[in-house]
Amino acid sequence: MALSTKRKLALAPWVFTFAFFAAWEIVCRAFGVSSFVLPAPSTIAMAIWEYRTQLAYHAVFTLWMTLAGFGMAVAFGLGLGMVLGSSRLINAGTYPLLVGFNAIPKVAVVPILVFWFGVGWVPPVMTAFLISFFPIVVNVATGISTVEPEMEDVLRALGASKRDIVFKVGLPRAMPYFFGSLKVAITLAYVGSVIGEQNASNVGIGNLLTRASAAFEVPLVWAALVVLAVLGVIMYAATASVERAMTGWAQRSEMAN
Q: Which sign does the torsion angle of CA 160, 145, 71, 118 carry?
C-alpha cells in the first residue's frame, strides 16, 4: 500500500537522519577513523550517556539564555520592523546603520558586553539578541512595505488611516515573512548564546565546549554539539508548528512534492 504524501513528509526527517548517522558510523568503522579526529555516532552516544548529568545541567542554562535573547529579538524586531515598513523615510535613514551593525562579528562585541555587564548570564542573552533580531526586522519591514499601492489607495478612499493600513493589512500580510524569519532567528540565537557562554559565562554548553576542548575531550565536545543541534531542532520545530497554526493560509499545497 502506497504511503500518502503526508506520511512521507512525516517520515522523511527520520529516514534521512538515520541514513546520515548510519553512513557516518560506517565510514568511521570502515576507514578506522580515530575518535580523536572524528568520533563515530556510537562513541558520541556513549559520551552523551556518560556525561548526561553535566550536559543536562549546562543545556538548561543555554536554553533559557537563548530563549531570553530570542524573546527580546522578537519584541524588538517586530516593533522596529513595523516602524521601518510603515515609513520609507525612517527605513532609508536607518537601514545603513542596521546593516552596518549586523555586519560586525558578534564575537567582537562580547568583550564590550563584559565591560558593561561583567561575566555572567547577561552577555550570552545580549549576544543572542544582537545576532538574531536583524532577520526579524528585515522580514517584517518587507512584508509591511510591499502592500500594493492600489490597495492603499482604495483603503484610504474608504476612510482607513495609515495606522489602520499598517495594523489591519500590512501586519497580517507580514506574518508569513515574520514566521519565516523566526525560524532563522532561533538558530542564530543559539549561535549567539554559545558565543557569549564561551567568552563570558561560567555555565552553558558554550562554556562546557571551551573546557572540553582545552582538556582534549573530543567525544564530550561532539556530545555537546549534538545536544545543541537537538535543542535547535526542537525550537525550530516548535516555531514551525506555531507558524502552521497562525499562517496556515500561506502554506504550500500538500500536492506539491
A: negative
